[in-house]
Amino acid sequence: MSIDARLKELGITLPDAPKPVANYVPAVRSGNLVFVSGQVSAAGGVAVKGKLGEGLSLEEGQKAARLCALAILAQVNAAVGSLDKVTRIVKLGGFVACAPEFDQHPAVINGASDLMVEVFGDKGKHARFAVGVPSLPLGFAVEVDAVVEVEG
């Protein structure tokens, strides 16, 4: 099954690849790896801002991480022309804007990890980190970056 067909089956529409907000590029391909810059919790006209543990629930954080993952997929699609070229999601890095006592960073970033596995199956299983930070750019709740392996 093509990834486009899989996305359709899951009821997922990829957003447009977000434009960078500073002096960087959204994705860089080096050999068979695509390095995707951090994508914030905004995709398809939906945005999640704020802090986990200070007004945002765990479920809202997971939704925010899923939005980041959708933006990552959009960036990879734009960089290589088709998500069918993805051979492996290698690594995700997750940053969660949160209160000092919030400690459920891994559960928040599961929103991104779960989407990768839903879309790519075993190829979507990846290495990962999840950390809490006092703030993220423009007040977004979550930011996730990625390393993705693609066909040569």
Could you please describe the fold and organization of this structure?
By secondary structure, the chain is of the alpha/beta class. It has a domain at 45-144: 2-Layer Sandwich (60s Ribosomal Protein L30, Chain: A). 31% of the residues lie in helices and 32% in strands. The chain has helices at residues 3-10, 58-80, 105-120, and strands at 27-30, 33-40, 42-43, 46-47, 51-52, 55-56, 86-97, 127-133, 142-150. The strands form three sheets. It has a five-stranded mixed sheet with strand order 1-2-9-7-8. A two-stranded antiparallel ribbon has the order 3-4. It has a two-stranded parallel sheet with strand order 5-6. Strand 3 (42-43) and strand 4 form a beta hairpin. Helix 2 packs across helix 3.
The share of residues in extended strands comes to 25-35%
Largest sheet geometry: 5 strands, mixed
Tell me the overall shape: globular
Low-pLDDT windows of residues: none
Key features?
152 residues; alpha/beta; 60s Ribosomal Protein L30, Chain: A; globular
Indicate the topology.
Elements (H helix, E strand, L loop, with lengths): L2 H8 L16 E4 L2 E8 L1 E2 L2 E2 L3 E2 L2 E2 L1 H23 L5 E12 L7 H16 L6 E7 L8 E9 L2
Parallel strand pairs: 5-6, 7-8
Antiparallel strand pairs: 1-2, 2-9, 3-4, 7-9
Helix pairs in contact: 2-3
Short description:
31% of the residues lie in helices and 32% in strands. It is α/β, with parallel strands linked by helices and 152 residues long. The chain has a domain at 45-144: 60s Ribosomal Protein L30, Chain: A.
